[in-house]
Amino acid sequence: MPPSDDKADWSKVEKAKQAGRFLRGSIDEVLSSDQPALAHDDAQLLKFHGAYQQYDRDQRKAGGQGKAERAYQYMVRVRIPAVRLTATQYLDLDRITDRLASGTLRITSRQGLQYHGVLKRNLKATLAGINQTLLTTLAACGDVSRNVMMSPAPPANEAESRALDFALEVASQLRPASRAYHEIWLGEQKLESGAPENEEPFYGQQYLPRKFKVGVALPGDNSADIYTQDVGIIPLIEDGRLRGANLLVGGGLGMTHLKADTFARLATRLGSVEPEAVVEATITVASIFRDFGNRKDRRHARLKYLVRDWGMDRFKAEFVERFSSRLHPWAKCGELTVKDHIGSHRAADGSWYYGVYVENGRIGDTEAARLRSGLRALVNELQPGVVLTPQQNLLLTGLTGQQVERIGEILDDHGIARPERVSPARRVSLACVALPTCGLAIAEAERVAPSVMDELEALLASLGLANEAVSVRMTGCPNGCVRPYTADIGLVGRAANAFDIYVGGRPAGDRLTDLYAEKVPLGEIVETLRPLLTSWKDDRQAGESFGDYYQRVHHRGPALGILTGAKGTP
Ligand code: SRM
Ligand code: SF4
Question: Which of ligand 1's atoms lies nearest the C-alpha of 438?
């Protein structure tokens, strides 16, 4: 019997789903009442609709309020499976934030878009407004297949284009079927008889045990960091033809400090399949997760724990049993790396695309730089396609050479640094949202990352390393929302003002970092790294990245495909 059938000790979230009538709960009733917030079960169900109940943690600190006085607000996440927006969609999404949210937009590390600070009374208008742009928030969060990531650059040929369609097809087939979303947010009439019994043919009423993440790479571009996904898809393209895809399973990064039974894990090779079987293979993995994932303990509910517990032999056997096509051995494929999509690039069809650097994904206006206004002006005037990248940046696509020249002028007019003036390290660095909105943040990230980068840039310049793209990924807790454990340097919030420093990942994304130093105060992070960066400069081999150098010279202990939350040895 699959463990998920034993319902006695199911987690509170499983019980909320069980009673939730396919994601309905009493969300609609509470939204139209004067209750200040949703209670636990509804707040859990709300996530499947793409919104998180939060409160401003800055305000709470200042006012010293208890739970009852929290000023509740909502984060709303737009799911954009094809990661491509039209100019009109972008401008419509931009307008919503002035009317209904905090006045900023936030590009996420999974190529989604978030609003923060949405008030309860504005939630319906926000979700309805997003749907009017022909986008959705359904399944942006919750125990379902999340936004499917993919390489953001325009495909170079027909084979790449077909490969990127895997992302769309997986997203469409794993989209929840419940009409609850339409009833609550889009005014569709509720059925008199309640929810039909089989409203979710794939998910069932319990949905998945936890979130499920899929990413598609392209040969030479692992922007989607596929080793960190539940399913990673590497298309096999030979002589311009799509031959199939290699599949990885069981990656995931979240862990808990000091808990050795939680871990970040790189996905393991499952094998390869024919092109027409890629989507079915992905859904097959999701079905194994649905039936066997842990529904008692959410800390151990991700697919990676099942893969570790079973081992790949058992996992493969279960997969083959369910899969209608053939699973072939892993096929030889080229080295993965990450392309820097910033600045101007020529697409295969002769058009141009231009990557605008967005520091930590936050699109807003400040006194120093009017990024949101500048992007609006660019999109308005040039009417480009807009693509969100896994590095929290934004590409404008389908441009002429003349339009590319115009971009520089518009950036200048709005005080936005042209990409060539942003250092290589900053261009590839990420930070998660963290404070003040994230309820799980232990430390700051997005708000302090720019000053950490200022210091690091100064140190790199003083060492003659200013042109090195050292990737720094900073998170306010060990959940790993900007994938710190595969970067050159990962900074992970450990206490209010202190971070654990991880080093030794690499752009290919197929190696985890080591824990290098613990509980380093924010102001000492860069100094702590100074000796290591200095020895890299002195002893590196030609072209050797910081992460590669660390692994060659300093790494002690076993090669790691797993990084546990246990106290590590620096
Ligand atoms: Fe994440 C939870 C933000 C990508 C691992 N993540 C959260 C929540 C919703 C906090 C919460 O549960 O209350 C954060 C909302 C903060 C806010 O105020 O906006 C949050 N995660 C984000 C985003 C916005 C980070 C960013 O700055 O870009 C990313 C949204 C992506 C999207 O559009 O869907 C985001 N989160 C990730 C990634 C990276 C990825 O998917 O490529 C990871 C690591 C990969 C993985 O899943 O293992 C990630 N987030 C987590 C976890 C740990 C999950 C685990 O099973 O271990 C949590 C906590 C949880 O789910 O309980 C979490
Ligand atoms: Fe919040 Fe932690 Fe994710 Fe940062 S890494 S957004 S602090 S859950």
Answer: 18
Q: What is the identity of the amino acid at 150?
A: M
- Encoded amino acid at 44, one letter: Q
Which residue in 211, 362, 426, 506 is the catalytic one?
211
Of all ligands present, the nearest one to the C-alpha of 111 is: 1
Tokens of 438: 């994230």
477 is known as an active-site residue: yes
Quick: pLDDT tens for 248-288.
Answer: 999 999 999 989 899 999 999 999 999 999 999 999 999 99
Residue in 79, 106, 110, 146 annotated catalytic:
146
Is ligand 2 within 6 A of the CB of residue 438? yes
Cβ-based neighbour number of residue 229 at 10 Å? 30
Closest by Cα among 337, 388, 342 to 507? 337
Query: What does the pLDDT average to over 492-505?
Result: 96
The rounded Å distance from CA 114 to ligand 2 centre is: 14
Residue with CA nearest ligand 1 atom 7: 481
Using CA atoms, how far apart are residues 486 and 261, in angstroms rounded to an integer? 20
Task: From the CA of 446, give the closest atom in ligand 1.
Answer: 27
Q: How far is the CA of 438 from the centre of ligand 1 (A)?
A: 10
Q: Are 248 and 267 in contact, with CB atoms under 8 Å apart?
A: yes
Average pLDDT of span 49-69: 77
- Return the CATH number of the domain spanning residue range 426-553: 3.30.413.10
**What confidence score (pLDDT) does residue 559 get?**
46
Give the CA distances from residue 491 to residues 235, 309, 499, 524, in Å, rounded to whole numbers and listed in that order. 32, 29, 6, 12
Give the number of other CB atoms < 10 A from CB of residue 6.
Answer: 11
Distance 410 CA to ligand 2 centre (A): 33
Q: Is 8 exposed, middle or buried (0-12, 13-18, 19+ CB in 10 A)?
A: exposed
pLDDT for 38-50, tens place per residue?
Answer: 999 999 999 999 9
Both tokens of 3, joined, read 């463990």
Same fold, 1-10+143-182+207-339 and 343-422: no
Q: Which amino acid is at 262?
A: T
- DSSP 8-state symbol, 360: G
Q: Which ligand is nearest to the CA of 305?
A: 1
The answer for 50, left when phi > 0, alpha when psi is -120 to 50, beta otherwise, is left
In CATH terms, the superfamily for domain 343-422 is Sulfite Reductase Hemoprotein;Domain 2 (3.90.480.10)
Using the structure block, give the residue that is written with the tokens 């949703």: 38
Give 402 Cα–ligand 2 centroid separation in angstroms: 41
CB of 449 shorter than 6 A to ligand 2: no
Query: Which CATH number is associated with domain 1-10+143-182+207-339?
Result: 3.30.413.10
Closest CA to 143 of 105, 200, 93: 200
Neighbours of 539 (CB within 10 A): 11
Residue 114 Cβ < 6 Å to ligand 1 = yes
The answer to whether the peptide bond before residue 436 is cis (omega within 30 degrees of 0) is yes
Domain range annotation of the chain: 1-10+143-182+207-339, 343-422, 426-553
